[in-house]
């Protein structure tokens, strides 16, 4: 049928494998194997060649030596030495005796916790070296008393930033005064014995409010913010806002002499002339 159509069928050759190759091909393969073996011998055996980890370590070491200014050998190895006195200052509690712990799991956890405490103590002591500032003080000449130094002398002696915070208020009509600052130290509250009350932002010298309650004042206190303050007047305790508007009159607190506000508890502690110590919860307005 293939002859009638005039077509010729090509006989399909069998696939050859490398072991069925001729002599010339075998010679070529042998030569190729010989070249590969010579290249391997030139590179060296596996034992002679360095491992990948060794090569990476050498590379990192070279980069570290280039990065160090002092060269490959650091003349001051290790961290900064911390004095024993400084370490003792930041010690918190006694060391845990791990030998008395029988439970292995608990002993492992306590050992890990002890390492954290030791590392925290070391870091706190090292950070303390970066804070060398000291509290301010007055130093006078021999035979001179500090009570004769006034605020103007201090303002002239300190730096410009500190001297700019100096200001003077002439209040000689309604005194003596009781004063109180907010927690951030920005707002000032003043209460005069003869009824004068004033609140101001002393940074900008802006007056918030100024009133006269027309009766004697024993003490004044800011509450949780600069929006409200308490005034212990002659008879009762009053709460005002920062505009001088009366918000509350607490008649249960009478004849209050001194006050102190506890910001973390929202409590206004008062001491009266009758000897009673009372607390006012300013969040709900109850005693």
Could you explain how this protein is built, in words?
With 287 residues, the protein is α+β, with helices and mostly antiparallel strands. The protein has a domain at 172-254: Lipocalin, CATH 2.40.128. Helices cover 28% and strands 24% of the residues. The protein has 6 helices and 11 strands. It has helices spanning 23-43, 52-67, 84-89, 104-128, 151-157, 160-163, and strands at residues 177-181, 187-192, 196-201, 206-212, 217-222, 228-233, 236-241, 246-254, 256-262, 267-272, 277-281. The strands form 3 sheets. The chain has a 4-stranded antiparallel sheet with strand order 1-2-3-4, with no helix packed on it. Strands 5-6-7-8 form a 4-stranded antiparallel sheet, with no helix packed on it. It has a 3-stranded antiparallel sheet with strand order 9-10-11, with no helix packed on it. The longest helix has 25 residues, at 104-128. 11% of the residues are buried. Mean pLDDT is 79; it is low at 23-29.
């Amino acid at each position: 049928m293939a002859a009638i159509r005039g077509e010729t069928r090509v006989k399909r050759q069998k696939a050859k494998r490398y072991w069925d190759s001729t002599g010339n091909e075998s010679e070529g393969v042998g030569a190729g194997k010989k070249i590969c073996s010579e290249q391997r011998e030139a590179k060296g055996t596996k034992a002679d060649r360095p491992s990948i980890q060794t090569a990476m370590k050498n590379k990192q070491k070279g980069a570290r030596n280039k990065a160090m200014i002092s060269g490959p050998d650091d003349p001051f190895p290790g961290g900064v030495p911390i004095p024993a006195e400084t370490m003792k200052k930041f010690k918190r509690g006694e060391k845990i005796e791990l030998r008395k712990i029988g439970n292995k799991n608990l002993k492992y956890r306590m050992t890990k916790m002890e390492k954290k405490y030791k590392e925290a103590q070391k870091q706190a002591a090292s950070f303390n070296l970066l804070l060398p500032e000291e509290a301010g003080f007055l130093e006078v000449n021999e035979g001179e008393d500090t009570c004769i130094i006034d605020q103007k002398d201090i303002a002239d002696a300190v730096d410009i930033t500190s001297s700019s915070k100096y200001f003077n208020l002439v209040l000689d009509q309604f005194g003596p005064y009781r004063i109180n600052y907010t927690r951030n130290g920005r707002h000032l509250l003043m209460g005069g014995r003869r009824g004068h009350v004033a609140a101001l932002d002393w940074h900008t010298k802006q007056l918030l409010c100024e009133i006269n309650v027309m009766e004697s004042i024993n003490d004044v206190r800011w509450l949780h913010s600069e929006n409200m303050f308490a005034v212990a007047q002659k008879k009762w305790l009053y709460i005002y806002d920062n505009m001088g508007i009366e918000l509350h009159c607490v008649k249960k607190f009478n004849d209050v002499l001194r006050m102190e506000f506890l910001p973390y508890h929202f409590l206004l502690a008062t001491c009266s002339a009758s000897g009673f110590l009372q607390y006012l919860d300013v969040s709900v307005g109850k005693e």
